[in-house]
Amino acid sequence: MDINAIRKDFPILNQKVHGNPLIYLDTSATSQSPVQVTDAMSEYYNEYNSNVHRGVHTLGTKATDGYEQARMKVRSFINAKRYEEIIFTRGTTAAINLVARSFGDVNISEGDEIVVTEMEHHANIVPWQELAKRKNAKLVFIPLEEDGTIKLENVEAVMTDKTKIVAVTHVSNVLGTINDIKSIAEIAHKHDAYITVDGAQSVPHMSVDVQDLDVDFYAFSGHKMLGPTGIGVLYGKAEILDKMEPIEYGGDMIDFVDLRESTWTDLPVKFEAGTPMIAEAIGLSAAIDYINEVGADEILSYEQELVKYAYDKMSEIEGIEIYGPTEERAGLITFNLDGVHPHDLATALDSDGVAVRAGHHCAQPLMKFLGVSSTARASFYLYNTKDEIDFFIDSLKRTKEFFTHEF
Ligand code: PMP
């Protein structure tokens, strides 16, 4: 990986914040986009902006091609069997809500159980809570180990003949835990349950093969994988999606409309009512090209190198608490510094030009599990460097000194 060449593709990184070079360590919230992505989107707006699936004119045809080619690109990126299995959504949140509403409302009945974990982002817990309320069903939690990992025997232990859905994240946005989705899917299926996976933090950082994992649903967001905001993907097995009803109705998703009755078109457009996110799909397609060009495996191993480097250095800071597993963690580190509120910490780091996240990271149940109300989080991607991590660590140390110094 040529890091200097990569950084040139991300002009946003080449700026000063409060007089210091920007060090962007908040990719887990939103990644930056290379010029290849923004160029593809401006080319669409400047040269062939038009609606899709409608017009026969040249621009409309080109826009439709761009949009549908993006779907093909996503299909091969996650190795889905068929392009119909790729539904474009607004993001991970919208994708999970689609499953909870459309699949959940039909397949969950009173007394059924939905298995989740305490490490879920709110996007993969609240839709299931609401489904459970609508149906008088029960949420069941896979217990977490102290280091924030899941033991497969505990997955097995919570499964009953009432379990209908297992909803679990692939990678925790707080702990960095990488869950063994293939084995969890196997356990779910053995109990005749379906598995839906939150892939918001995995797809951007590792090769994901939905057929190999044998998951029923898999959701992720464009803006965490070098793409634009406003687009995400719901993958679902065609035989399951085929039987599901849309949750939004309107243009494009219909087959035939009469005054009082209508019928729906086929997958995938059945789930994409109205004008879709055309420029965003084209941007996402360019983001996938970029990741493929660098190589998903190369990105993963570079990130692993960065996170290990940062973890070792951060561990040496007195009074630091780092959450999550020591080994096998994704490229993010969530932590607290004794005597410094995470918001103060993030503000102090920002004044040095370092962008980290502070707060509950949309994972309040997990904060409760960790016994804290908030934490700070540094997250890494292919455009970060060890020099940046050195500066971040120095800034952390200075901040600690400032806040804990006895005057
Ligand atoms: N799940 C996880 C694990 C996440 O990290 C996020 C984003 N923070 C989401 C779901 C929600 O993604 P989005 O806001 O793009 O819908």
Through-space gap between termini? 47 Å
**What is the helix tally?**
14
Overall average residue pLDDT: 97
Q: Roughly what percent helix?
A: 40-55%
- The CATH class assignment of the largest domain is Alpha Beta
CATH topology of the largest domain: Aspartate Aminotransferase, domain 2
CATH architecture term of the largest domain: 3-Layer(aba) Sandwich
Tell me how many strands there are: 17
Task: Evaluate the radius of gyration.
Answer: 22 Å
Which ions, cofactors or small ligands are bound in this entry?
Answer: 4'-deoxy-4'-aminopyridoxal-5'-phosphate
List the uncertain runs: none
Task: List the domain count as a whole number.
Answer: 2
Q: Which shape, going by the Cα principal axes? A: globular
Q: How would a textbook summarize the main sheet?
A: 7 strands, mixed
Query: Beta-strand percentage?
Result: 15-25%
In the CATH hierarchy, what is the superfamily of the largest domain? Answer: Type I PLP-dependent aspartate aminotransferase-like (Major domain)
The spatial strand order of the largest sheet comes to 4-10-9-8-7-5-6
Structural class based on helices, strands and sheet pairing: alpha/beta
Keywords: Pyridoxal phosphate, Transferase
EC number: 2.8.1.7
Protein name: Cysteine desulfurase
InterPro entries: Aminotrans_V_dom, Aminotrans_V_PyrdxlP_BS, Cys_dSase_SufS, Cysteine_dSase, PyrdxlP-dep_Trfase, PyrdxlP-dep_Trfase_major, PyrdxlP-dep_Trfase_small
